[in-house]
Each structure stands twice: as C-alpha cells, then as structure tokens.
Amino acid sequence: RKEVEQDPGPFNVPEGATVAFNCTYSNSASQSFFWYRQDCRKEPKLLMSVYSSGNEDGRFTAQLNRASQYISLLIRDSKLSDSATYLCAVNSWNSGGSNYKLTFGKGTLLTVNP
Amino acid sequence: NAGVTQTPKFRVLKTGQSMTLLCAQDMNHEYMYWYRQDPGMGLRLIHYSVGEGTTAKGEVPDGYNVSRLKKQNFLLGLESAAPSQTSVYFCASEGTSANSGNTIYFGEGSWLTVV
C-alpha cells in the first residue's frame, strides 16, 4: 500500500458545483496533514492544514478521520479560478523515531467549467 | 522576504554531465526537502534533511547526492546526468509557527532536461 493515495481524477465540474477530494494514508503515526494547490507550471502552495476537529476557510472545508486514516477537502460553490491540481500531504516519523518526512499524494486535477 | 529560492530555474544537460541545484531559505527552518515531479507520478521525495549536517534518503534517491553544510542551504547534485532525470525539481523547507503550526514552503522549481 502506498504511503499516501489520492483520488486519481481528473474532475470536471460546472461552476457552482461542490467537489470533494479524498486522500488515504498508511502510517497510523502520521502527525500533520495538509492540502496544497498547484497551478500549471507553478510550485505547490499551501491551501489548508487539516486539524483533527476539522477546519473551514470560506468555501473550503478540510476534515481528518484518524480511525479510517483519510483526509478530505470539500470545495463548495466552485469558481473558475479553483481550477488547479490539489495535492494532499502527510508527514510523520518512522517507527524508530529516527526519520521524518513529508509525503504527497499524486494530486487530482480539477477543471471548473463555465 | 525571499522565502525559498532555487537556482538555476532552467538547465539543459548532456548525458553524463554533472550539476548542482541550490536551494536557499531565509526562514531559519530546520527541515528541507528535494522533490521531483513527473507527469502521472506526483511529487516524489528524493532526499531530505532534518537539520544542518544531516541528510536522509527519500523515495527515489538513486543518482542524486545532497549536502546540508549550512542550515540555510540544501544542495542537490547529479554526478552523471541521465535522460531519466529530466524532470521538474522542487525544493521545500518546513517550519513551525504559533499561528499555523507546521508550514511547508516551496521554491519555484527547477526545470532540468537531460539530452
């Protein structure tokens, strides 16, 4: 099982639609979780950190389910400008506590159509 | 506020040539990472560092070497470039703030072509 797996997509949705992205992770000791947005030929940029209690930022809602080891991102009332690739990221220590790393999902391309 | 700076941004190499990509961050971060990104493969971790003088292998370390002699710099070296190393390379650094917890910042990327 890959460390971080993400919906392969792509997603094509009309403006105003609600779209959900899911990401599962294999390391139960993972500590921090993030959603990134990446525009074409640009670097990934942090969209949201994901907290245990869930968090919301305007039209964006992120949730964490530790029991099932997945995180989600919900975009409501999608805009043309939301078109991008969305990547989840997880960081964790290894079982021996000697190595720490940040692992990304492969990303899901979202296209919002007029 | 420069954040994370990568140089060079674009480079074409011949097979067998060597080169070094430089990543510099001015945020006093401990953790730094080098990723490569290829179509359909996502971001794959090459090497990373949890502090000055330390490095560790990531998911795809073969053909690359790294050094972290100074806290602010993380160098990625290709000793003998191969066409399979044609990719976009992203450096990132990670820090912790009271407001936002762990935050990862990326450089703008380095486009490398090996012919």
Largest sheet of chain B: 7 strands, mixed
Unreliable parts of chain A: none
User: What is the rounded Rg of chain B?
Assistant: 14 Å
Oligomer designation = heterodimer
Largest interface in this structure: A-B, 22 and 26 residues
Overall average pLDDT of chain B = 92
Count of extended strands of chain A: 11
**Count the strands of chain B?**
11
> What portion of the residues of chain A fall into strands of 2 or more residues?
over 45%
- Helix/strand order of chain B, N-terminal first: EEEEEEEEEEE
Distance between the terminal alpha carbons of chain A, to the nearest Å? Answer: 38 Å
| Category from helices, strands and their pairing of chain B | mainly beta
Write down the overall geometry of chain B: globular
Helix content of chain B: under 10%
Structure description:
The complex is a heterodimer of chains A (114) and B (115). Chain A has 114 residues and is mainly β. Chain A has no helices and eleven strands. In chain A, the strands form two sheets. In chain A, strands 2, 4, 5, 9, 10 and 11 form a six-stranded mixed β-sheet that branches. A five-stranded antiparallel β-sheet of chain A has the order 1-3-8-7-6, with no helix packed on it. Chain A is globular. The model of chain A has no long low-confidence stretch (mean pLDDT 89). Chain B is globular. Chain B starts with a strand and ends with a strand. The mean pLDDT of chain B is 92. At the A-B interface, β5, β9 and β10 of A face β4, β5, β9 and β10 of B.
